[in-house]
Amino acid sequence: MIRIGTRDSQLAVWQATQVKNLLESLGTPAQLELVKSEGDLDLVTPLYAMGVQGVFTRVLDAALLSNRIDVAVHSMKDVPVQLPEGIVEAAVLERASCNDILVLNPNWQAPDTGFQISAFRSQLSDPETLNGEPGTFPLTIATSSVRRKAQWLNRFPGHTIENIRGNVNTRLRKLSESNWFGAIFAAAGLERIGLRPAGSIDLEWMLPAPAQGAIMITARKGDTAVLRACSRINHTGTAYCVKAERDFLSELMGGCATPISALATIHQNSLHFNGSVVTPDGTEKIEVAETYAIDATVAAGRAAAAKILEKGAGPLIAKMNNEQ
Question: Which cofactor does it need (predicted)?
Fold first, then answer.
């Protein structure tokens, strides 16, 4: 019997249940063990002030190392690139949508200024559309992510960003009770538990966090039977892409408040990699777009990091880390 550790939010339990079902479909019995994390308990402090990386994983790491659970299930974007001593990656499930989406406030009232929501929606959904009159209207958007804040302000510098915390259910409630125009969510989180509201807008121009949309399973190093069972549900293509994205993040050595984004996708026999670094106020942005052969000897993420450093990302990251 494999004991699966998970946070107790609706989304986390859904993800762990998927792992349980996959393991059991291959003949490995499993059961869920619910653990509450400090990231779930603190709904006030912005994530970047809590030290984003690891805030949702530390309690499960401790449970793994103390042998209270056999595996832990995480949204992979929450997992630090450097795993604790004694813990290893056991598997990565096939990735869902990696997009960020804007959920509109159903109770928001448009001011009598001629603001056209339909025109603004076209700006949000079309990555080629540049800032225009609708985007200059001073809307308020909610997110706890400094990456989302930075990219939004880079595209819509006249807008205001408000912090919003909590699990997806809590954030949806807070949005409906606010005077915000909308809030930014990960598409995968809402779609997995059937909570994506009608009319939500895919922000295809917003580059995701490394490994966004992927589910990661960790286990104790040397636990051969558990690692063997998990390897059978590993999705090779997703694992290859998210490794490149996390290598990019690791190589840049960004701090917890550094808006570093990355997305690797496979097309035919090539890996297409896009990455960016944006200042939190959205005023400076450096991007990289490269294509690499699919080869275990090619460190695509590290190569892309070297490219973006050549473009001047290093001083930008250093400046942001010093300001944290």
Answer: dipyrromethane
Structure tokens at 56: 């949702």
Number of domain units in the chain: 3
| DSSP code for 206 | S
Which of these, 243, 242, 315, lies nearest to 277 by C-alpha position?
Answer: 315
Query: Residue 284 sits in a domain of what CATH number?
Result: 3.30.160.40
Domain hosting 51: range is 1-93+214-234
* Domain containing residue 185: CATH number: 3.40.190.10
Same domain for 104 and 122? yes
pLDDT digits (tens, 9 = 90+) for 75-88: 999 898 989 899 99
Distance CA 52, CA 89 (A): 19
The reply to whether 228 belongs to the active site is no
Rounded to whole angstroms, the Cα distance separating 224 from 77 reads 26
Q: For the CA atoms of the chain, what is the radius of gyration?
A: 20
Q: Given this model, what pLDDT does residue 257 score?
A: 63
Whether 77 is a known active-site residue: answer: yes
Query: Is the separation of the CB atoms in 38 and 262 below 8 Å?
Result: no
Q: Which of 20, 77, 196, 246 is catalytic?
A: 77
Which of the following is catalytic: 78, 100, 223, 247? 78
- Residues of the chain with pLDDT below 50 are 39-53, 130-135
Catalytic-residue membership of 61: no
Residues 109 and 183 in one domain: yes
Active site residue 68: no
Q: Is 281 a catalytic residue?
A: no
256 is catalytic: yes
pLDDT value, residue 133: 46
Given the residues 20, 147, 174, 196, select the one marked as catalytic.
147
Whole-prediction pTM: 0.88
